[in-house]
Amino acid sequence: MDESQYTKIVTVRILEGSATQGNPDYEPDSARATTDALITWLNDDTNIHTATSGTGSGDAESGKLFDSGFLNPGDKYSIPAEEIGAGEHAYYCQVHPFMTSTITIE
Ligand SMILES: [Cu+2]
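Above: inputs. Below: predicted complex with copper (II) ion.
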């Protein structure tokens, strides 16, 4: 991923402690980005996480818009907002399904 061509980068951090249910996880919890932005998820935790589109593993559309795969501590995953497309999109962590959030592309 060549990030240098993007002047707008929206970063969503996966906070330390996210693996414990009830803790804050994705920050910001409801991220917003314009279609010309690059969206990056950064794993700041000490556990493995994913950012996977959909509402959960039972969602037939799970992972169709984007899926980071397993992010080790310190890893990041980026995707252009235009590839995700406009709208409010739910996503979750495949390892910890209680970690849910939204990304809105406008
Ligand atoms: Cu997780």
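The helical segments are 81-84.
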